[in-house]
Amino acid sequence: xxxxPIGLLAVLSAGLMHLSAASEPLINAHAHNxxxxxxxxFDALDHGFCSVEADIFLVEGKLLVAHNRQxxxxxxxxxxxxxxxxxxxxxxxxxxVFPNGPEFSLLIxxxxxWKPTYPVLRSALTNYADLxxxxxxxxxxxxxxxxxxxxxxxxxxxxxxxxxxxxxDGTLADLDPSAPADLIPWISSSWATSFKWRGQGEVTExxxxxxxxxxxxxxxxxxxxxxxxxxxxxxxxxxxxxxGVDLINTDDLSGLEDFLRRY
Length: 263
Prior knowledge:
With 263 residues, the chain is α/β, with parallel strands linked by helices. It has helices spanning 5-23, 42-46, 78-92, 114-126, 191-194, 205-220, 234-243, 253-262; strands at residues 26-31, 49-59, 62-65, 104-110, 134-136, 139-141, 145-151, 167-170, 186-190, 224-228, 248-250.
């Protein structure tokens, strides 16, 4: 192909702009059951996701990542799949998961009883204090990664802690300004049990108003909103973006990335 210097410069500039856009972190993208992908964590990071989810089971003193108890493998620990590679990436990128990027979220879904599991989890998290956001006396010290605990959890987990290494994944029942945002920065809810709309056609005025009310109330309390068990396609994602939902839950990493970079 013959190309003048000016034309070649234009081509190179366009290519650099494309690479720059593709590398921008996606603050609204949440990798649901991230560990089920071929390359846990890394696939999500390659697509620019700023939030990933890992289910854990306490098995013989280890925090093993899997969706079901029968699927656990001794080498697939929370540390090996997530915390250790995140630490290496944060060191490489000057203190952030993405260079000069936003805070990253690691949602940890406890599948076993929290009473024996949480102390082991907390002990593990203390070993990564150099990269985790912490909470002391109601004040958040922002770092590269915030851990959010979901699943089998209770607010009493944190009782007596002078320093917390994690926050709590709230429910719609926690949309109450008396619960501080540093304790409950997220509100998560099952879409299927909260709404009848399944992403086809137009959402009803009643449900649109309900969704707007949830988002508005959460934002007024400095909380983010996420729905799980939701339709996973562009029509639904567009409705969530239009409504101001902060975190779009997906198993389709490339599909959501493409949508968010185009929309």
